[in-house]
Specification:
The chain is of the alpha/beta class. It contains twelve helices and 13 strands. The strands form two sheets. Strands 1, 2, 3, 4, 6, 7, 8, 9, 12 and 13 form a ten-stranded mixed beta sheet that branches. The chain has a three-stranded mixed beta sheet with strand order 5-10-11.
Length: about 290
Amino acid sequence: MKKLFFLLIAISAIALSCSKEKKPEVDMPNKGEITITTDESFQSVTEALVDRYMALYPNTKINIIVKKEDLGFLDLLEKKTRVIVMSRELSDKEKKAFDQKVDLPWLPAKFAADAVLFVVPKDSPLESISMEDIYKELQSDDKKIIFDGTNSSNLNFVAQTFQKNPSELKFSIINGNENVAEQLKNHPGKIGVISYNTISRPFGKEAEKLRNELKVLKVIKNNKAFEVSNDNLKNMSYPFTRVLYFLTNEPYYGLGNGLIRFSCQQLGQIVVEKEGLQPYHIFNREVQMR
């Protein structure tokens, strides 16, 4: 009887102890720590937005993992990351997987217009390349076009533009946007493919260095040449303009959704503009004269 009595006391003590254990603290827009994932092509603008957000909210910590776009999406489905940055359209199969695994509406939060660039060394005689020539080169065994890797956002977007799977295209690889830009001079006759965000930051030392070494080819479509400019990104007339957007698996208004909301509102859009990209949400600036 005494043994039963002491056993009941022990069970009650354990139950009381468990009830007093603190539940994991849920992050909030102004407090907590999360991990987000971005492709290297958008790393610069992602870091700029995160740095500004954490400066506004010192009790937040947002860790950035740089990973190929396709792999980042898989991590989002498996809830290994809270937010990802994407540029290409998801397939119907991917949207279905998102609906099943994340159990949230597929709602992309668009925040910037970026672009895929075709670049050559500064001393190259090339000035432009047509859509037809790009497609022709991507079918050639010469593999003149160099991408920054398989599963990369640049390759995915170009393949999607031509309504092809990346596996159907022929190309060379140098891992990393900056590596493509820096090593292009060692591969005469080749054309590199990089993100605009790699060289768009107006006062970034590395971006400025790469701009001085590279020539961005105009892209010819329907007998008209388009260069990368804010106006051409704004109206999406440059043929390889792409819209960057966030996806999250966060089911409440926490730190992930806080960052997304900030990035899509005026302060975040100013950060995007300072990165040299075209803000997706354009805010009118009104000056009152007295």
